[in-house]
Amino acid sequence: MPGTGGSRQWAVGLREVSKTHGSGRGAVRALDDVTTQLRQGSFTAVMGPSGSGKSTFLHCASGLQRPDSGTVEIGGHDLSGMSETSLTELRREKLGFVFQGFNLLPALTTEQNITLPVHLAGRRLRLDKPWLERLLDYTGLADRRRHRPGEMSGGQQQRVAIARALIARPEVVFADEPTGALDTATGRAVLQLLRRLVDEVGQTVVMVTHDPVAASHADSVLLLVDGRIAEVLGASSAEAIAERMTRLEA
Ligand code: ADP
Ligand code: MG
Question: What is the DSSP letter of 121?
Fold first, then answer.
């Protein structure tokens, strides 16, 4: 169970991570010597202006991209030495992903979308049916289990995506602008759901956002500027986060 004792206190650790996109005159140093550790059972928001390296941070921290230098550890596993196959398995079995555009399969029902990662893993994962029921409850989707994405609102679809991200009881859930495609009220419900999963299930969540209101749901906020962590805030109001961002950008 994440967040309840054990010898590993950190779900994710980055040490001196740098990543450059492109080469020559077009090269952009998207991450520049980033070091941070994210506690198990914590909710971290990664904020920064457009182009500050938020997506690159998420991709490196979750093994989707390899840094040029530095090390990334997830749940005590150092990713640098891992093969592409092992990285793919780690992502599928130990990590959950939530995207701005939901990324659900339109032909599948809610229940089929949620359980897809377990089926894709074949014999390596077994479906935990009581956990599926609990997730359907948590996300308020119990009466939508036979619906397809096209028959549901954006907020409902994002809740399906969150349940899918959690079905394999991942070490960490990574969310990239999870409320970016939702209206304010629907977005708030999705953020409150993520918050409850942290508080009540001990889930570790890392969320990229440019929205101070979204970031105000987190336990800590990493402020990225030009690929570096310019500041780390504890739990803060949206106003305080917005004010810090404005100062750092100036
Ligand atoms: P953010 O998510 O904060 O907008 P990104 O991590 O996407 O920032 O990008 C950081 C910087 O790296 C930006 O200047 C962006 O243009 C550049 N960049 C990102 N991905 C690529 C890529 N595949 N090729 C070239 N440059 C890239
Ligand atoms: Mg981005």
Answer: T
Residue of 222, 166, 234, 209 whose CA lies nearest to 34: 222
Question: Does the beta carbon of 36 sit less than 6 angstroms from any atom of ligand 1?
Answer: no
Alpha carbon distance 240, 137 (integer Å): 34
Q: At a CB cut-off of 8 Å and minimum separation 6, what does 34 contact? A: 14, 16, 17, 18, 53, 57, 70, 227, 228, 229
Q: pLDDT by residue (tens digit) across 5-43?
A: 444 689 999 999 999 999 999 999 999 999 999 999 999
Question: Is the Cβ atom of 48 under 6 angstroms away from ligand 1?
Answer: yes
Confidence of residue 93 (pLDDT cuts 50, 70, 90): confident
Residue of 17, 25, 56, 229 to test ligand 1 pocket, by largest number of atoms within 8 Å of CB = 56
Which residues sit opposite 46 in a β-bridge? 208, 222
In order of start, what are the domains of the chain with their CATH numbers?
10-249 (3.40.50.300)
